[in-house]
Specification:
Layout: H1 6-21, H2 26-45, H3 49-58, H4 72-81, H5 85-88, E1 90-98, E2 101-108, H6 113-120, H7 122-146
Length: 149
């Protein structure tokens, strides 16, 4: 028995048509899926307001102020406001889609993103989660396409 790959071609065409009805390509959808996971992972590593408060309390007022002349209370409020910056700054910079190959360039525009990512490995965790989710979707698509054989 010979396998006819046209079922996969039509399945990928259906995926592309569904994405275009939503105003995006499959590559853009997958890029947004990755960014969503990266933001979720970024929020998981963000310190809570209670953690920030305890850290400032343990330093007994010996904290480096962001602005000259600001008080400890103002610095505490600023740090609480800025705590999710790493999670919010994920963006897609470039997308290439040729045939069934998809390449997506993603970066984090926050100031210390490289340092945070080296410590917490947010990008690697997000990539692994996105890859496993995409593979599960492809496996489901393959099962639907080949169940007639």
């Amino acid at each position: 028995m010979r396998f006819d790959p046209s079922g996969f071609d039509s399945a990928f065409d259906r995926m592309e048509e569904t994405a275009k009805r939503q105003g995006k390509t499959v590559a853009e959808q997958q890029g947004q899926f990755f960014i969503k996971i990266a933001k979720e992972q970024g929020w998981l590593i963000a310190p809570s307001p209670q953690t920030i408060f305890e850290k400032i309390k343990s330093l007994k007022g010996r904290i480096r102020h962001y602005k000259k002349g600001s008080t400890v209370k103002q610095e505490l409020d600023r740090r609480i406001r800025a705590r999710g910056t790493f999670a919010r700054k994920w963006v897609t910079t470039k997308i290439e889609s040729v045939g069934f190959s998809i390449r997506i360039w993603v970066m984090n525009k926050s100031a210390f993103s490289e340092i945070v990512d080296k410590q917490k490995h947010v990008f690697d965790k997000s990539a692994e989660m996105a890859k496993s989710g995409y593979k599960a979707k492809l496996d489901k698509l393959a099962d639907q396409t080949t169940k007639a054989f």
